[in-house]
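Q: Structure tokens for this one, please.
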Amino acid sequence: MTAGKDLVLLHGWGMHGGVWDGVRPLLEERGLRVHAVDLPGYGGSAAAAPYALESIAAGLAARFPGPVQVCGWSLGGMVALRWALDFPAGVERLVLVASTPRFVSGEDWPHGMEPRTLRAFADGLAGDYEGTLKRFLSLQARGDDEAREVTRALRSSLFERGRPDDAALQGGLAILRDSDLRNDVASLRCPALVIHGDRDMLTPLPAGRWLSQRVPHGRLAVVAGASHAPFLSHRGEFARLAGGFLHG
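A: Here is the predicted structure, written as tokens:
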């Protein structure tokens, strides 16, 4: 493992820490000591109850007392935000990838997924577990310059670390459905880089732009031609952006 600044990578819903394997060497080449963790209920991590942002963030803060740098993707980005907000002394810098303060849309938030679409995924888990997960992964790649490759990469790694815990899947969807961090982000103390693809159909670019403008020390990096997983489709550019920012 590379000796350098500690970087904790947090994956998104339905996946595990192995999703970062393709870009991890590029980050380590930049002198970062990378920890790609499995969130509770995924891979080698035991399930947690209650399955909530606050408790997941507290568990990570206890495991990595810091100071560390944190990079979170999608649901992992919400966890990373909560971690940095609740334990500000433990997080030095934050990279938020395809992240949003609120995943679902509403009357005052047009930059998210329709609530009924998310409900359909929750309902689908009971009847067609594997198909539901694969449909969600396909949405993450839609519109990307490298959509076919991104879809292949996500699907091939989906069950590499075993089947996710059912309660973790449902709990993660509940977090995406219910969490709204818009009133909290102004309290963020550490510098934050928001990396967003301009073709993201799950968390549209305006969500990332809003987030980068509301955090006190935020900046936005847009990856042209990327959808929801720019660290898979544009690995070199992602590593350059994240690595440069994390080195200050």
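A few notes: The chain has one domain: 5-246. The radius of gyration is 16 Å.
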